Amino acid sequence: MKILSGTSNLKLSKDISKNLKLKLINTNIRRFADGEIYIEINENIRGNSVFVIQSTSNPANDNIMELLLVIDALKRSSAKTITAVIPYFGYARQDRKVAPRTSISAKVVANLISNAGATRVVTVDLHAGQIQGFFDMPVDNLYTAPLFAKYIKKLNSKKLICVSPDVGGVARTRALATRIKADLAIIDKRRPAPGKSEVMNIIGDVKNKTCIIVDDIIDSGGTIVNAADALKRNGANEVYVFITHAVLSGDAVKKIKNSKIKKLIITDTIDNSQKTKNNNKIEVLSIASLMSEAIKRIANSNSVSDLFN
Ligand code: R5P
Questions:
Q1: Mean pLDDT estimate for the chain
Q2: Which CATH number covers residue 137?
Q3: Do 279 and 251 touch, CB atoms closer than 8 A?
Q4: Ligand 1, from 125, 218, 242, 261: best to mutate by most atoms within 8 Å of Cβ?
Q5: Which of 120, 134, 229, 249 has most Cβ atoms within 10 angstroms of its Cβ?
Q6: pLDDT tens, 30-54?
Q7: Backbone dihedral angles phi then psi of residue 41, each to the nearest 5 degrees
Q8: What's the whole-number mean pLDDT along residues 72-88?
């Protein structure tokens, strides 16, 4: 078993390699003058089970292309199996036709990864579980719920309520609410235009409660900031936000800073070390040990789901 890192989140790859006590495969990943990517693997990997770690975060197109070329290089170097470990699977939000004549980007990316030669995919909190079916190979979708539940327990609040910021996130939020034995509320969110969100209603009683908003992605921050405002208007005591993939585009960090959110807790599926430096409103929980354990179990053909029981 060997692990190889792309360039999108080297910090996470190094943490995983430390946990697994395995050196990262020696590679040469460079750009030509015109931006094209060049990949060279500097050690023998013939017959090895190789895990490639690469988040397809911003710049998504470059990071996807880099992942594809690494997989291709591994295939041509006779790796026995190639597992694409994609902590943040970008392009997942377009997982169905939302209007006539639109594309389904999650399926296109799944096809690219399959055709490049991956034999398995490992990812974290997929935007929609059904995306697993876009691949004709095993997909292990890891959950951050146990990590978040541990943090929430430390808040020591008796009046917790988990809040889904939109209807699409209900299953994820309910799973966390069940785990921490809390109530559930749902926000009726509408998108009047792409990138804009509005809270229409709150389903559930949030008065005098500590609200735990859970979502897979924070991008512009609009969804979460509006949700926190609405919860406060409806009498919530405090609003904590737990997000797996902190895309944090544009002025999202500033929006969070000026918002009614008490704390935003994110993970390191995307490397945000620069954006979150010296920011006491944002806390980063590492998923390195969860990912390392999952990789170990896959390599040893042990159960991955047992990790979440
Ligand atoms: C949408 O379905 C996702 O789960 C997130 O709620 C969304 O991507 C957040 O976007 P933004 O932060 O730009 O409102």
A1: 96
A2: 3.40.50.2020
A3: no
A4: 218
A5: 134
A6: 999 999 999 999 999 999 999 999 9
A7: -100, 120
A8: 98
